[in-house]
Fold each of these.
Amino acid sequence: MTSSSLLPTDPSVLFTTAGMQQFKDYYTGKADAFKDFGSLNTVSIQKSMRTSDIDEVGDESHLTFFEMLGNFSFGGYWKKEAIQYGYDFITKEMGLKIDYVTVFEGLASAGVPADEESERIWKAIDSDLEVRRASIQDNFWGPTGNEGPCGPTTEIYVNGVEIWNIVFNEFFYPGSRDELLSGTSLKKLEKLKTSGIDTGMGLERLAMVVQKKNNIFETDLFSSVINRLHSEISERDKRIIADHIRASIFLIHDGIRPSNKEQGYILRRLMRRVITLEELYNQKQIDISAYLAINDFLSIYSTVYSDIVEKIVADCWVAESNKFYKTLKIGLKELSKISHLDAASAFKLYESFGLPFEVIKEMGKEKAFGLSREEFEVERKRHQEISRAGAERKFGGHGMKEGDLTAENAEEMKKKTRLHTATHLVVASLEKVLGQKLVQAGSDINIERLRFDFAFSRKITPEEIKQAENIANEIVAKDLPVSFVEMDTDEAFRVGASGVFKHKYGSRVKVYSIGIEGDYFSRELCGGPHVTHTGEIGRIKIIKEESVSGGNRRIRAIIE
Ligand code: SER
């Protein structure tokens, strides 16, 4: 069978992670293999993608994208044949020596006995072979997604690595793998009407042992790319660059485009990691030349995947690089200024500058010591929900809407507009007092007060608050003009305008400035509206400073 797409039809999984995924319905009896492809048995080379290992990439054996070789049976052959095929292929076809094999030790609580049958079959084939028993964690496959076929496995090890996984799909579990392994689920393993065989062997690992290499990156699937990369690039970075570029090529090929959601989010993460490495090495005058690596991979893979279109991959790569590059430099600078990185501040760097988690973690060094991927993802999901709810409110609500503000009536809009400009003034004043640009985390204005959050690791003292308030009121007293210009987003950042995190900027933005050209007091990317002169604001009073979640500070102020 030809490989199916990396984008699975099963909506409960993000990517195709194994060869068996496209055959789920044949195991459960929902689909009829004989009717569909004239046999109960088949083989495939399936493009697969596993994001669970993304943080491990860089070591000797982990990859995100890989090709999985497998043979499958849906009621055709069973254990004896499947094990014999595995043995023959590894020892005779490939000429390799098996270190040992493993079989399932059984799990009494799930009513599954030890796999003595497989043990006997292995011994009958080769009485000298070491057969080890292993637990449900290692020797039980599936289900993938929310439910599906699953069963005990037997695994073949060569040169210390697992080469081949032979799965005996005897069961159906009506829940996820995590649920099954937790041991607390009330759901039971159901016996499948027809038992099936599912085997999986990573092409890259097989190539490694066949080509007698120490790691997968030395095989001919990677060596041209790895060898081309500059000798001063660390081994780990070379592997990350190679893995991520290769995975990106295949994701793009299957129609995925970088975005902030689901598969697109993963693609963006992979691409941006490489683009960031390009920038960091560039600063040391070392050229990564991602496009050459893309070409190397295309010349390896286009013989097999002849429909990969080089131009589509290249265009997508260039577009993402251009888009990201604009904010990357500013983001890296912001990152260097933040004194402590936790999930919330890391998320802000991701959201406003697109810095990938891996970059934040790595570049943050000891500042990011306690930062975990799990917490970051929780934060990301939370924000996705907030913005979804916000969008619903916006479309469901009534009243006036002008730029970034909504109001019930003209009176309220006027008051909120004054508070809006006051927000810019207080932010800029605080920046002066604290001696650094503030990384804003959002703002909220109601008829009573303004409120905004920003990343800062300690309490702002009452003296600092007072100083900031004084500076803001001096600017009010000067009655400085407030103006805006529209410009390209990258130009806006270049002229030093501050951005607010919750905004998604288009290619052109408005930049609001307070003061006179050449001596601006504040410049911010903002949708407006604002007063025309600071004098319209009235006296500003900061009424509260407090800490909010994730190392942020929150300021509330009123106008009198
Ligand atoms: N589904 C099993 C695996 O992915 C065997 O193909 O390892």
Amino acid sequence: MTGPRRPEHGFETRAIHAGQPPDPATGAVSTPIYQTSTFAQEAVGEHRGYEYSRSANPTRTALEQCLASLEGARHGFAFASGLAATDAVLRTLRPGDHVVIPSDAYGGTWRLVHDVFAPMGMQFDAVDLDDPAALAAAWQPTTRLVWVESPTNPLLAIVDIAAVAKYAHDREARCVVDNTFATPYLQRPLELGADAVVHSTTKYLGGHSDVVGGFVAVLDDELAASIGFLQNVVGAVPAPLDCWLVLRGVKTLAVRMDRHCANARAIVELLDAHPGVDRVLWPGRPGHRGHEIACRQMRDFGGMVSCTLRGGEAAAVAVAAATRVFTLAESLGAVESLIEHPARMTHLSVAGSTNAVDPALLRLSVGIETADDLVADLRAALDSVS
Ligand code: PLP
């Protein structure tokens, strides 16, 4: 069996219960935080499935089962950060293998490929994956993996996941999707044909800006064996408390995402109408490139909105510093709204490269506060520099 799992229960039910039965020892309804490094054995080699917490820990198992269920995966592996999860997937490749990544991949993913894996012999090309001709032009006999983000960070480009996965499979390569921006509530890449899904659980899955974590959801057993091996051998695993924080966050993912999407809509309406704003980037806008694909492959369009300002970099930097409800900070996907300037903050590592982002760009992570407060806050900041 290699297809996505057909779940017995709905998404919200699985978010609350999958992998989390009441604790068999005590009946505790909230999964215990098994804050232990090691586990007593009855006799040498006789244990209850847990020996040492780098290899496995019950709180981590609960998280892995829950997130695997939400993505429709057969296997799930939790990591200490999103980049540790990305690193594990890339380590399954060999020197000389060629990888295609998005031209506006998350800056940290670009840096990992460019500064760590490429010097060790990985070949790669960064292309606009929303352009099938660009993927075809970059393809090489040694291409083993296409790394997809959709929507991308920070331009919110939409990639046709089903088409890219098919293109890769027809050429015996794998397709892995960083689903951090969409979450499994809005988009399930494995159902669209991808082989694996990566998350920074730091973002929407955790949802409260209180934990850093990562996750890999895998369909096929062979890739899962490699990722599981690397998780234990390299040891970039999350602590039990961090697993518990993500588990707790995920319970409310569906209701949070509905509000993130609704609030993003209200912010997009403001930006569309404001004279100081040049381009508005949000997959839910009918004019957005890839909007029709987003309608097909996403349930809703997410809480991330980007825009460029007519006043250029100076205006963007000034607006980022002028909001009061939106906090000026890196990261995204939590209950509180954040604003940032990608060229000087999250995407500084790609400055000067072909991947550099427009300095007039602002990225908004629209939170779940009162929509009117968010709109008023951003309007006041835009008015102050226009
Ligand atoms: N993928 C995306 C799309 C991200 O935005 C981020 C972080 O911002 C990462 C991966 C890396 O995650 P982490 O910061 O948890 O390592």
